[in-house]
Amino acid sequence: MSGITPANGATDSMAVVAPNLESTPSIIAAHAPQVKDDDESMSEDDKPLMKKQQRQQNNKRVGGGTSSSEDEKPLNKRPRASNGAANKKRRVVDSDSDESDAGPSVKKEAEPTPKTNGTSKPRSSTTRKPVIPSSDSELSEDEKPLAKRATANGNGTAKAKPKPNTKAAKKAPSSDEDESPSEDSESSEDEKPLAKKKAPAKPRQSTSSAKATPKSKVKAEPESEDDDDVPLAKGKAKGQAKPAAKDKKPVIKKEKKVKEEEDEEDKYKWWEQEALGDGEVKWTTFEHNAVLFPPPYVPLPKNVKMKYDGVALTLPPESEEVAGFFGAMIETDHAQDAKFRENFFKDFKAMLEQYPPKENVKVKSLDKCDFKPMFEHFEREKEKKKAMTKEEKKAIKEAKDKMEAPYLFCVVDGRKEKVGNFRAEPPGLFRGRGEHPKKGTLKHRLCPEDIIINIGKDAPVPVPNIPGKWKGIQHDNTVTWLAHWKENVNGNAKYVFLSAGSSWKGQSDRAKFEKARELIKHVDKIRKDYTEDLKSKVMADRQRATALYFIDRLALRAGNEKGEDEADTVGCCSLRYEHVTLSPPNTVVFDFLGKDSMRFFQEVQVDAQVFKNIKLFKAEPKKKGDDLFDRLTTTLLNKHLNSMMPGLTAKVFRTYNASWTFQKQLKHTPKNGTVAEKIAAYNTANRDVAILCNHQKSVSKTWDVSKTKHEDKIRALKYQRMKLRLQLFSLDPKIKKKRPDLAEDESDMDEEFCERHEKELLEKALDTAQKKFDKDNVKLEEEGEKKKDKKDLEERLKEIKEEFKELKKERKSRKVEPRRAATEEKLLEQIQKMDERIATAKVQLEDRDKLKDVALGTSKINYIDPRITVAWAKKYDVPLEKLFSKTLREKFPWAEAEADKGWIF
DNA sequence: AATGTAACTTAGGATTCTTGTT
DNA sequence: AACAAGAATCCTAAGTTACATT
């Protein structure tokens, strides 16, 4: 698919299999909670239990499961259109003040409660149902499948291409009418949606340079007493130079000999110490080599030139490099993208202005640019590289490793630590995701003058590997970065940090999970409180409670405001009117682009009060483009959370719910299964979490093809099975009676397939014979013997063809002569084996299908407490390396050290 | 309160490496 | 031995959060 994206996120990946049309929102399977329609009933709700109860129900419903109660049945989906209508009539009323609590709604239009289920509609097969996080208490219950909200992810996955939604409206709201919300009477005036929270959109221009200098700490390069500019060679010894004066953490004995020191270092168990927080001193001595700049641009060979309107252009290296950036991408989707092209061309033209082609041609249109020659040159280079001998490759690799060696590690308080992204980002074209307004923009080449380094006062100042002086050198020991610069495209800061396996990262990572575990202790109360607040008279509180409900139940991100020059994506607090649609009685349809422009599309059954609230938040003067939660910001939300539990913020819920869900789902692990079965259960739990967090991956372009291949493989197995069966029947016609199950034909075995399959088999057989013949001859020749005659080969081929004619006959007659030595027992046994193989292959295919658009890695790396995995591995006796790759194990040494099989999150 | 800055975590896609097949 | 599929790693974009400044 070319870069063209369907206008409406909806259809997107057509190439891909996903059959279901999104237009038909799949049904939610939800169960129907008993909706309470009026607030009165709500009061009930206040009781703690209630909420749980509901949740349980949700969980239960696992997919369409068998459970009997009617509410287990999927409730039909209501097309938006229709519900619109439905709504219409009731709408206004809703906002009514209701008695006791501000709760809106008048009971009048009582929603039809659950009964609706009756009409069940089949759920689309691809529907995914996220597992919904629940509180402990319900554990037992949740052993049951949880279904809960079924998402209609239609093909879900899709990365929907965003529909540009003008955000113009958003901020620019009709501020004035702020007041008007009319009588929605909800209550105090603050109930009225406030029109816009922000008025004038202020373009924030990133003026780079200028006041750039960050904290005063930065010293200008010159004055830094970098007397000894020597890069630190090999870290070691030197750190000690200045004994950490008052080191907070005991620096390990520095006197050791190098070798021992290394060991020591390996053994440093940072997790046995206190984690340090924000703003605290993180180090006493700090040595490193900052960043490694990429090699300078090497001009292309003289004969490689782009063309403009047919004429080859001789470009100076500066502009040639930029042309090359695009040239390398002409076959990618980016090169077809209008915005990308526009931005690229603007920068390219500017570059040409300064570094024009020798030919004195004015480049005016990107369409007339032909980068093919460059592209082909790059392809050739790639080929060349691939074709190099092992030795050549090795030599290159060695040279590269040598160059990088000094940057791989740094020394913190005398300990060697691995550096993460030490390579300065090379120049190129900005690949923003989704509808990023800046995509295609030229990202400049960095030089030392762009980079500020942070390093120990007494550490030698590293010498850049290209000419130039650092922009600044600072010695801030309350931060953990080695280098930092501002990128020109968006004006964003970039940092060089230590690797994921370093103690700094490990400490904060562990602290993150500990914080999430702490939430376990508070979550019941928090849930109870926000459930209560759903009915608050204070609009801001009600919005906050509703948002929190989403964050907790749907694992939404906080959702900060974004700027005009960024992709239009949202999170919870920044949801807008058009992102949620109501479908009575209690379904909310979410459809928006989240982080990385990944589409979040789910139909969710919510508490009646939540449903009412959304209706209220979308009430009258509000329209498309307005914030759903106009009284809420992430700051407000986090402030509130912080008051409920120190350090609590919105993101903690994602971590908590992810880990909690994972642990819960792992309970489905078969105790006596094989290792493979256990791992499958592990992966299933992992998948549940990924779905909860909406972690998607794009479906590979060749997925379709590979799927067909797998299907054909299964059909081939079925074909074999059919042959076995037919033999069996020839042997003993009565078997059909005895084993009616065997009398049944394999599915998918139509004539057309058989013919095609047999043809393929024939070709393969011929090919094999040919190869064998060639090989034999080579061998014979080597041994000095006479080669076989070509006639032999031809004869053999003819034989094969004859054999296959047999197959054709069999196909027509549907009779197969038993092969020699075939007996009834043997055949039955073979059929049984075949059945197993078919079953296995089918399961595999299904698994592949389920994972085709779900990314498991992100949750494993960032959300699931690694100790859960370690404990599980120990408990079920599965080798950890089957669950964690090498880098993950390096990232989580602390988990292996502290979790035994009884550990729980 | 709105903006802006700083520092750090989280994220999917591209690239490279490994492994299983033919 | 060649290749292709999948897993792992690399890369850097895109979030969150706290705090400073206007």
Question: Summarize this, please?
Answer:
The chain is mainly α and 905 residues long. It contains 26 helices and 16 strands.
Can you offer a commentary on this structure?
- The chain is mostly helical.
- It folds into four domains: 1-206 and 509-670, Topoisomerase I, Chain A, domain 3 (Alpha-Beta Complex); 216-293 and 408-424 and 446-504, DNA Topoisomerase I, domain 2 (Beta Complex), CATH 2.170.11.10; 671-701 and 851-898, Topoisomerase I, Chain A, domain 4, CATH 1.10.132.10; 704-842, no CATH class.
- The strands form five sheets. A five-stranded mixed sheet has the order 1-11-10-12-13, with no helix packed on it.
- A hairpin with a 5-residue loop joins strand 15 (587-593) and strand 16 (599-605).
- Helix 11 packs across helix 15.
- It is globular and about 85 Å long.
- Residues 1-127 and 135-262 have low confidence and may be disordered.
- The protein binds a DNA duplex (22 and 22 nucleotides) through strand 13, helix 11, helix 14, helix 15 and helix 23.
- It catalyses: ATP-independent breakage of single-stranded DNA, followed by passage and rejoining.
CATH architecture of the largest domain: Alpha-Beta Complex
Strand content: 5-15%
Count of DSSP strands: 16
Q: Supply the number of structural domains.
A: 4
**How many angstroms does the end-to-end distance come to?**
44 Å
In which range does the helix fraction lie?
40-55%
Give start-end ranges of low-pLDDT stretches.
1-127, 135-262
| Total number of helices | 26
How would a textbook summarize the main sheet? 5 strands, mixed
Shape: globular
- The secondary structure category is mainly alpha
Question: Compute the gyration radius: what is it?
Answer: 33 Å
Oligomer: single chain
By CATH, the topology of the largest domain is Topoisomerase I, Chain A, domain 3
Across the major sheet, the strand order is 1-11-10-12-13
In the CATH hierarchy, what is the class of the largest domain?
A: Alpha Beta
What's the overall average pLDDT, rounded?
76
CATH homolog superfamily of the largest domain: Topoisomerase I, Chain A, domain 3
Domain DNA topoisomerase I eukaryotic-type: 429-877
GO molecular function, one term: DNA binding
Biased composition (Low complexity): 202-215
Protein name: DNA topoisomerase I
